[in-house]
Design goal:
mainly alpha; globular
């Protein structure tokens, strides 16, 4: 009997404790629900305070970038004569545009990192770091110009596209690369150093502005280069001689950079395979565009939107890449498998900027097409195309950028040499495919 009473008391005690715990759990749950608005408000307020400056600086830079990309889009939209007269140009154009952003975006990101960690002064003074970065950027530009021409030519052969000779492609890209490099090097240095000197974060400003100038200069430099090379049309022997001279210069420069006992060697060795992969992706993106050339020529707004969409997407990705690179170097984030709080904040900033920028560039593309006497596809259509394509792309790319950054840093590689070129090239190729697929789907649905 005593044992039975003990069992009943123990059971009753357990039931009471269970009920008490349940009540406490419910109370804590209700308390948490009532405190949730306050917690959300505090989190949002804290994010806005910390991210407000970043969003403002990045938005201004992306808006300037959009203006440069709009110019590139207008030029591309009115390049029908060159695209028809010199078949194969469309295949190399995305790669050429991407190459400027990749090489000089990485240049600017490296300067930004050196400024953040105090190894570079924001004053315009010649230093070993500047000499190494200028030399390596020049070497990479010459090398990648030749490689992109060869890759573009191979893509044309594989997909049976009409194409000008390999000699012409190499000379056009080499001359265009030199023209844009002479202008881009001082511009990149000026933007990086002056933005830091004036209290702005170069990570939020440098890469999109550099990309804007790169996009702005690439197509005109290609047109000027085509005009220059066309002067040698009937001087075949001289053209071959120039081709051989270019190959010799590139080979000597690459060997010099690859074996040089300074930071040039590290930059060239780490950047070359990444930029080669980027050139392949760029040429494939060009192949997609070339295959859809007849459709694009009939819808001029889409042709105008391509550099805008690619440039803004690359700008968003490069801002994220530059910020993650600096955060990794500074120890603010660890290269872990799961993104932590600081990384999530950067993701959120990029998504907010994407939601703002993609409708803006759509409006710019349609307005410029109509303004230059072209036939648009309608504001609702182009805004929908740009926004849906952009959000699909950004949601995918933010994780790609993070894991490329974490992996490269974890393996002892400099993210400044890896992240921006690889992620922006992936963005260029994927963005082209997504934009065309979404465009055909929406325009097809509209027709129905």
């Amino acid at each position: 009997m005593m044992n039975l009473l003990k069992m009943i008391r123990k059971f009753g005690s357990n039931v009471v404790m269970l009920v008490v715990n349940l009540i406490l759990y419910i109370f804590k749950g209700i308390q948490y629900l009532f405190s949730l608005p306050s917690l959300i408000y505090k989190k949002v307020n804290l994010f806005l305070k910390s991210g407000n400056v970043v969003i403002k600086e990045s938005f201004i830079a992306l808006l300037i970038c959009a203006i440069g990309d709009l110019f590139a889009g207008i030029v591309l939209g009115n390049m029908t004569f060159f695209l028809k007269t010199y078949p194969g140009l469309m295949v190399i154009i995305p790669g050429a545009i991407g190459m400027r952003g990749n090489i000089f975006g990485s240049f600017g990101s490296r300067l930004s990192t050196h400024l953040h960690i105090g190894t570079l002064s924001p004053k315009f003074e010649m230093s070993d770091i500047l000499i190494e970065n200028i030399s390596s950027s020049l070497i990479l530009t010459m090398l990648l110009s030749v490689l992109l021409a060869v890759i573009g030519y191979i893509v044309c052969i594989i997909f049976n596209f009409q194409c000008i000779s390999l000699f012409d492609l190499v000379l056009i890209l080499f001359v265009a690369g030199l023209i844009s490099t002479i202008i881009m090097l001082p511009i990149t240095m000026f933007i990086s150093l002056k933005s830091y000197e004036n209290g702005w974060d170069p990570d939020n400003i440098t890469t999109p502005l550099i990309a804007a100038f790169g996009d702005f200069l690439t197509l005109p430099s290609i047109i000027v280069s085509v005009i220059i090379i066309s002067l040698f049309t009937h001087l075949y022997v001289l053209k071959i001689a120039l081709f051989l001279v270019v190959i010799a210069i590139v080979a000597v420069s690459f060997v010099y950079g690859y074996h040089h006992e300074t930071g040039i060697k590290r930059i060239v060795r780490q950047s070359t395979p990444v930029l080669l992969a980027c050139s392949i992706l760029g040429a494939l993106a060009g192949g997609v565009l070339n295959n859809s050339l007849s459709t694009l020529l009939k819808n001029q707004t889409l042709l105008t939107l391509i550099p805008l969409f690619s440039g803004e997407s690359g700008g968003l990705v490069s801002i994220l890449g530059a910020r993650l690179s600096s955060a990794l170097h500074s120890g603010l984030i660890e290269p872990s498998l799961k993104p932590k709080e600081h990384t999530i904040e950067n993701f959120t900033i990029i998504l907010i900027l994407a939601i703002i920028m993609y409708p803006i560039i759509a409006i710019m593309a349609e307005t410029s097409t109509i303004g230059f006497g072209g036939i648009g596809i309608g504001y609702p259509n182009i805004i929908l195309i740009s926004f849906i394509s952009g959000m699909i792309l950004v949601l995918f790319m933010i994780f790609i950028v993070y894991y490329i950054s974490a992996f490269s840093y974890g393996k002892g590689l400099d993210p400044d040499n890896i992240v921006i070129p690889l992620s922006t090239s992936l963005t260029d190729s994927i963005s082209t495919l997504i934009l065309i697929m979404v465009s055909l789907t929406i325009l097809g649905l509209t027709v129905i």
